[in-house]
């Protein structure tokens, strides 16, 4: 029995862990005490990764659908069939879509990108969890000159001031949440801005519980108050004043009305002014916000990056602006170029009935929700690759197995750009091809020779072609706890500039007939509805305990609203939207929700996802989404 170091593959924190293994099976997990981010901590998901890695629900051989049923096949037969079928479609015309995975290693994603371009000839692609991350990358690149986090997650440990916008980070990325709480105990000021009293909000020094849809407005108001302090003190920050967009930004900030701010957000400007004093005094500042699915909208992210620049503290070694990803290698997937381009994503192609898409190549779809399932089921051809059995197999004509993350070498890029390596530490008894090797076999069968011998060779190609990765290698990454990719590889990395903003005062879309503002997003149940967590025992038990209490799922409302509706906790109610979709669901009474609002975690049951999926704008807005609903006793 031995302990092998690796990187946890379950969220974008990038925690270090040891796997207890005899080389054939994983028996347990231990934390890696020396890791600079996790520092000997793991969340419940990381502690029970052995249950996932030891599940018997693995795909171990290629499968081909015949007469409606999947049968076992050889790699040669399955690869030949995929190549033959894909040749029938015109990738350049948008007939082939690629749906990548945010859990794939950098090596797998890079090779998939080559397969899409060089073999299938398509640019219609996307990552399953990318919804808000592209907006984060676009805003950060405009502000700092490169598409990635500014600074490191280790900055939390020594920062003077930490601002968490939106995300319930102690539940979604518990180790980061623990580090924030530890920072507060040593004296850092922790401020949260969220519509509900989240767990991190309860632990923070100051919580602004604003009305839905006004996070960006409040961040801009904080910037206005900060600017006013400097004006009163006659302090000139020349390096800030000279940044492109500064004049327009300041003019927009000065247009903010304190009366309109309070009416829209429920927060008095005087509170914001008091907070700005603490922000101005801080020498090092960390901004954290949720990215990926259920992330923030672009105006809110622009407000965050602008405020970060305005503080003039972003050159401090312990300052940072980090979009916190909920899935392990979302940042790496973007770096490797498999995310969907604006206006040309696979999701747009699947959502539009008249789009030309006819075939889909999918990697590792681990969510309980399959968006656009009806459209996918009608495609001419679907090829699917995954390590674990799940519902997406029912839609596939060909299925390829993939190894678990500890059965092959691979690198992963955490939310703060830290690139880390996991070495193969368990045998691959069925001879399952790593993703990069499978994609190379498909390329060879199509007449393209790449010449990769191992994952290190793929990474060498990444280092040669992907900005920021040039100084990295498997050998170097194996000597410590990874390294951040280099922002200086981007030509504009030293040219900071403000994003353009437009001050808007949010007005609730609710009406007398539909008086509640429904917010959607993630709760801890996100992890337990997800396919990987359903393969574990302890995390699944937590989720199932919730379903014992609320077997139909739940909608959170305030005690006052519950009293007005004359409903009690666990009572079933009918929830109907302004567009006519309805569902029956249990009430969960919570003092953490504001009057007139309601909250549903959309991963708790498929019936809820079916209710929400028609709201494409809600997915685009992420945490800022609001759907007008009415609630009636069932």
From TrEMBL:
Give the protein's recorded name: 4Fe-4S Mo/W bis-MGD-type domain-containing protein
Q: Which PROSITE patterns match?
A: 4FE4S_MOW_BIS_MGD
Give the 4Fe-4S Mo/W bis-MGD-type domain ranges.
1-57
Keywords, A to Z, come to: 4Fe-4S, Iron, Iron-sulfur, Metal-binding
Q: Which SUPFAM superfamilies match?
A: ADC-like, Formate dehydrogenase/DMSO reductase, domains 1-3
- Note the Pfam families from the entry: Molybdop_Fe4S4, Molybdopterin, Molydop_binding
